[in-house]
């Protein structure tokens, strides 16, 4: 955690027992969930945006989907996960949430799931899945975002690997980091999006569709 993240921690509001339980579960079972400083920024941005529909790519155990749905009671959150074990945990946790009626969990690979048939448009998309596939996720789902809508993309630091010289990156992760760099360069210069990077948590990119 950097200095700015430590300072942000002082502004983090208390969470429900369910959310605290999920945070403990994630830590004990090495499940990646969004870091608290970053999710506080995300939730505040969503409060400002006030979307009525959000698509999340990468549910994990349902933590961020629950946080978004509970923060925005009038919003419908559609979330996609492909890992069978995480799906089961997500279902269990979502069932305990006060916002469970506003969360729809789709099972399968986000690059293959048919979302458009039942959900042709979204006000926001949150991408937090396979980092090397961000370009493909963006290509598939950005057309569903309304003009003026926002795409929120987490893990742009990739646990610090994005900041390293490529020679310092473990060989097995180099392709993923190259893909992430390519995506970052591409979206920052894309004429149809106004993009801003927030150096909080593991790096949050926010792209407003013109």
UniProtKB/TrEMBL annotation:
SUPFAM superfamilies reported in the protein's UniProt record: S-adenosyl-L-methionine-dependent methyltransferases (SSF53335)
Keywords linked to the UniProt accession: Magnesium, Metal-binding, Methyltransferase, S-adenosyl-L-methionine, Transferase, tRNA processing
Superkingdom classification of source: Bacteria
Catalytic activity, reaction form: 5-hydroxyuridine(34) in tRNA + S-adenosyl-L-methionine = 5-methoxyuridine(34) in tRNA + S-adenosyl-L-homocysteine + H(+)
Residues involved in S-adenosyl-L-methionine binding: 34, 64, 81, 109-110, 128
Classification via InterPro entries: Cation-dep_OMT, SAM-dependent_MTases_sf, SAM_O-MeTrfase, TrmR_methyltr
Catalytic EC class: transferase
The keyword Transcription regulation appears for this protein: no
Residues given in the record as Mg(2+) binding sites: 128, 154-155
GO molecular function: magnesium ion binding; O-methyltransferase activity; S-adenosylmethionine-dependent methyltransferase activity; tRNA (uridine) methyltransferase activity
EC identifiers of the protein: 2.1.1.-
GO biological process terms, semicolon-separated: tRNA methylation
Gene3D superfamilies: Vaccinia Virus protein VP39 (3.40.50.150)
Coiled coil: none
PANTHER family: CAFFEOYL-COA O-METHYLTRANSFERASE 3-RELATED (PTHR10509:SF14), O-METHYLTRANSFERASE-RELATED (PTHR10509)
Family of this protein: Belongs to the class I-like SAM-binding methyltransferase superfamily. Cation-dependent O-methyltransferase family.
Function: Catalyzes the methylation of 5-hydroxyuridine (ho5U) to form 5-methoxyuridine (mo5U) at position 34 in tRNAs.
Subunit-structure text: Homodimer.
UniProt name for this protein: tRNA 5-hydroxyuridine methyltransferase
Record organism: Viridibacillus arvi
């Amino acid at each position: 955690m950097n200095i700015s993240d430590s300072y942000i921690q002082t502004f983090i509001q208390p969470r429900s027992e369910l959310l605290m339980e999920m945070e403990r579960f994630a830590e004990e079972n090495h499940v990646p969930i969004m870091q608290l400083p970053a999710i506080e920024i995300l939730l505040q941005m969503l409060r400002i945006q006030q979307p009525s529909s959000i698509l999340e790519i990468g549910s994990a155990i349902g933590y961020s989907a629950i946080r978004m749905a509970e923060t925005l009671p009038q919003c419908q959150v559609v979330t996609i996960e492909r890992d069978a074990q995480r799906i089961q945990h997500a279902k269990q946790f979502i069932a305990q949430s006060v916002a469970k009626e506003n969360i729809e969990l789709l099972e399968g690979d986000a690059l293959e799931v048919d979302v458009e048939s039942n959900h042709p448009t979204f006000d926001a998309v949150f991408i937090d899945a396979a980092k090397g596939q961000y370009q493909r996720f963006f290509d598939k789902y950005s057309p569903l975002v309304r003009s003026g809508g926002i795409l929120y993309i987490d893990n742009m630091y990739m646990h610090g690997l994005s900041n390293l010289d490529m020679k310092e990156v473990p060989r097995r992760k180099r392709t993923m980091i190259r893909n992430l760099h390519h995506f970052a360069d591409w979206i920052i210069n894309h004429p149809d999006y106004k993009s801003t990077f927030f150096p909080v948590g593991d790096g949050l990119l926010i792209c407003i569709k013109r």
